[in-house]
Prior knowledge:
A: five-stranded parallel beta sheet
Amino acid sequence: MENTSNYPPIEKVSIIVSHGSLEGVYPGLIMANGARMAGIEANLFFTFFGMEAIVNKKMDKLKVATVGNPAMHIPTILGSIPGMSAFATSMMKKEIEKIDIPPVREFLTMIHDAGCNIYACKATVDMFHLTKSDFCDEVDDIISVGQFYEVSAGANIIFT
Amino acid sequence: MAAREILGKMLEFDTDNHLKNRDDWNEQVAIELAKEEGILELTDRHWLVINFMRKEYMEKGNAPSIRKLTKESGVETKELYSLFPKGPAKKAAKVAGLPKPTGCI
C-alpha cells in the first residue's frame, strides 16, 4: 500500500515499552524493527516493568501473563495454577519463532544493529536500584524523561 | 500502475513502484533501479543480497525476512543497512525486481 494520503510519511518514532510480559514487550520491538526496515528513524525507551526486556538476567525469561487477560480465554483460577504461565510462554515462543520473529535478546541486537537507539528510564533504574552493568550491551544510555523528549524531537511517540 | 523507460525499453511498474514483470529484470536493469534509489554502485555484497532475495522469492513466492536474509546470506544487519540505507527490505526487493515484501520482520 502506497501512501496516497495528503500527509507526509512518518520519519521518526519513539517507542515506549512499559510492560514486562512477553506479549507486553514484543509489540514495541516489532514496531521499532519495522520502523528501521522502512527507513524510519527509531528510539526505544524501556520503563517500569518493560525494563525486564533489557536487563541481562531477566530478558531471556520473560513470560506470558495467564491471569487478568480475558483474551487468553483461560479462567483466572486455571491461569493461576503453577506452570500455566510457563506452558503458555513456551507455546507462544514456538509460534513466534515459526513466523521468524527472534527471541528478545537476538531481536534487540538486530534492532540496535539496524540503527535504533535503546534507552533505559532513569526513574525506573533508581527505583529498582539498577546500574548500567545490569543491562545488555545494546542499551545506549540511561536517560531521564526530559532527555527522552529531547531525543524524540520531531518523532511520533508510541506508548506500549 | 505505470510504465516508464529503463535503458530504452518501456517497463511496467506496480503501485509501489516495483517492477511488475519478473522477466523484465536483468542485471543492467538492476543497476538502473539502484541508481533511482540513490545507490550509485552495486558491489559484490549488494549482488549477494539481491541474488539471495531473488532465489528465495523464486522458491517460496515471497521475499525473505531481514532475519532470514542476514542469517543465510552472510550479510549482517549493520552491513545490510549500510548497503541499502533507508529501508533495506524494500530497497533490496525493488532493485531485485521483486514486489514489496509483505512480512513484518
